[in-house]
Write a structure and sequence with these properties.
170 residues, mainly alpha, 3 helices, rod-shaped
């Protein structure tokens, strides 16, 4: 009888630990989803955009913000230089108009490059979200199994207690 009660206590502790793990996993999933929404919502990531991201993902987000800004600027500059070298950027004669034309092309190239980089980052985040969701499903299955075992052991403990109770001639 005492063994069954100990088993109830052990299973209860295991279920509690799994439920804590499930909460932590849900929080991680939520953090990745929040980062993905920030990534999809803005054209350029800045310190203001990523301020609400969890501490777990903040280093990744800030690194991506710096990298994507630099990489997209370099790509835009290379595209603009190529367009100028091949004569695809018309010469308008007015230096100010020329500058505006080139900056407009640069901004368009940068936006296209940033979009591609953000799509790559979003794919990585989606894969991580899938992994976390699989982990969450596994934890939930283990909780269900442990709860079923707990109910079985509780029933056994109850029956053992009932069978071992003194009858006093009744």
């Amino acid at each position: 009888m005492l063994m069954a009660f100990w088993e109830v206590q052990r299973l209860t502790r295991e279920i509690n630990a799994l439920e804590r793990q499930a909460i932590q996993t849900r929080n991680r999933l939520s953090n990745y989803q929040k980062y993905a929404s920030v990534l999809g919502g803005s054209s350029i990531l800045t310190a203001n955009n990523i301020a609400g991201i969890s501490a777990e993902l903040l280093p990744r987000a800030s690194l991506f913000a710096r990298f994507s800004n630099q990489a997209s600027s370099m790509s835009a500059m290379q595209n603009l230089q190529f367009m100028k070298m091949t004569g695809q950027v018309p010469f308008v004669g007015n230096p100010m108009a020329q500058y505006q034309l080139e900056m407009s092309a640069f901004a368009k190239f940068k936006e296209e490059s940033m979009k591609a980089l953000k799509q790559q980052e979003a794919q990585i985040l989606n894969e991580k979200e899938k992994e976390i969701q699989l982990e969450m499903n596994d934890i939930e299955q283990r909780i269900k199994m442990k709860r079923a075992m707990l109910e079985s052991v509780k029933q056994l403990a109850s029956e053992e207690a009932r069978d071992s109770a003194p009858r006093f001639g009744l």
